[in-house]
């Protein structure tokens, strides 16, 4: 298990010229210090005395912290916020909170099998992702695969759970409108989702579910339309992503497979990084190559190998993608 993601770790160390280990505990301490600084700044300085740009920055960094103040302070601070910041706070504060009721076949191993090798593998991946964004912008992470049934939704769900457990506000976005599965996995099916919002049938806040007693939110696909690509190309999509980006620390997008659909290209344009999922014994090398070539090299951060038996105590391996090499590079776990 200790060898999982070694290729990525070595690559990052070589690029920086020194070893900079990052742990979940250190990350949490840094985030706690930042939140305390933001609260102190807001308490000692009147947001009304700041320019619109500075006020927007504070609101964006503070996220939901304005909701922790008393009613009088909240009214005073939100009254002076720019309209975009107010909209972000409003969206998150009005989301419906639901109890987590995972389906029996969901395999949310990070929640239900916390001591398993698979859960440990995802925790290590969470550490690597936090490490990566110290050197690059990485908030909107796209999870995709070359063809269906390679485990992309399973990977996206567990990655989101791991990041949310680290005290980071995490949104799991169900971007696969053709074969949505996340609402079923988390037991939040039945309400409106992204499709209803993009078609003007619901508000964004009513489309998002907050998982009770957690830092995890889920934006399900909703009722799948007959023309999913047309819905995804709605002018409301970039507006939605701008609002969501300001309110969350992580946005994990479960995308349709790269081949043979064009849907993934829509999500790839708004993503900061892309993780390609493959399944040992299922994914063909030729298709994997085509999938890599279809993605923007600068955004492809690596590939997750599902159902790997190369390690005796894990079903998962990670390969670091080397841009320009035309394939996945690195040692398997």
Structural class of the helices, strands and pairings? alpha/beta
Spans of at least 5 consecutive residues whose pLDDT stays below 50 are: 1-23, 41-81, 312-333
Distance between the termini: 8 Å
If helices are DSSP runs of H or I spanning 4 or more residues, what is the number of helices? Answer: 15
**Main sheet?**
10 strands, mixed
The arrangement of helices and strands along the chain is HHHHHEHHEHEHHHEEHHEHEHEEE
> Which whole number gives the mean pLDDT?
75
**Main sheet: strand order:** 1-4-5-3-6-2-7-8-9-10
Q: Radius of gyration, Cα only, in angstroms?
A: 20 Å
CATH class type of the largest domain: Alpha Beta
CATH topology of the largest domain, anyone?
Answer: Rossmann fold
Helix content: 40-55%
**In percent, how much strand structure appears in the residues?**
15-25%
Please identify which CATH superfamily of the largest domain we are dealing with. P-loop containing nucleotide triphosphate hydrolases
């Amino acid at each position: 298990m200790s060898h999982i993601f070694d290729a990525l770790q070595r690559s990052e160390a070589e690029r920086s010229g020194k070893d900079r280990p990052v742990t979940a505990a250190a990350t949490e301490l840094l985030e706690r210090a930042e939140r305390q600084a933001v609260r102190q700044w807001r308490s000692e300085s009147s947001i009304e005395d700041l320019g619109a740009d500075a006020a927007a920055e504070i609101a964006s960094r503070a996220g939901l912290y304005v909701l922790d103040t008393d009613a009088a302070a909240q009214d005073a601070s939100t009254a002076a916020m720019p309209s975009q910041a107010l909209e972000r706070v409003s969206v998150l504060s009005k989301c419906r909170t639901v109890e987590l009721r995972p389906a029996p076949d969901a395999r949310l191993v990070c929640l239900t099998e916390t001591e398993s090798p698979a859960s440990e593998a995802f925790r290590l991946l969470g550490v690597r992702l936090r490490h990566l964004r110290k050197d690059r912008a990485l908030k909107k992470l796209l999870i995709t695969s070359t063809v269906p049934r390679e485990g992309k939704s399973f990977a996206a769900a567990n990655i989101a759970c791991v990041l949310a457990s680290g005290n980071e506000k995490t949104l799991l976005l169900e971007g696969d409108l053709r074969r949505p599965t996340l609402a079923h996995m988390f037991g939040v099916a039945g309400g409106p989702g992204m499709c209803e919002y993009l078609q003007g049938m619901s508000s964004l806040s009513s489309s998002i579910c907050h998982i009770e007693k957690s830092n995890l939110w889920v934006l399900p696909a909703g009722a799948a339309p007959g023309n999913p690509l047309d819905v995804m190309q709605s002018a409301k999509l970039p507006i939605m992503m701008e609002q969501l980006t300001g309110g969350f620390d992580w946005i994990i997008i479960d995308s349709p497979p790269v081949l043979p659909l064009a849907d993934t290209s829509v999500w790839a344009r708004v993503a900061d990084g892309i993780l390609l999922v493959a399944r040992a014994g299922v994914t063909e090398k030729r298709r994997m190559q085509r999938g890599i070539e279809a993605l923007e090299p600068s955004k492809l951060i690596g590939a997750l190998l599902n159902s790997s038996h190369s390690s005796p105590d894990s079903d998962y391996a990670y390969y670091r993608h080397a841009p320009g090499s035309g394939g996945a590079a690195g040692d398997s776990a």
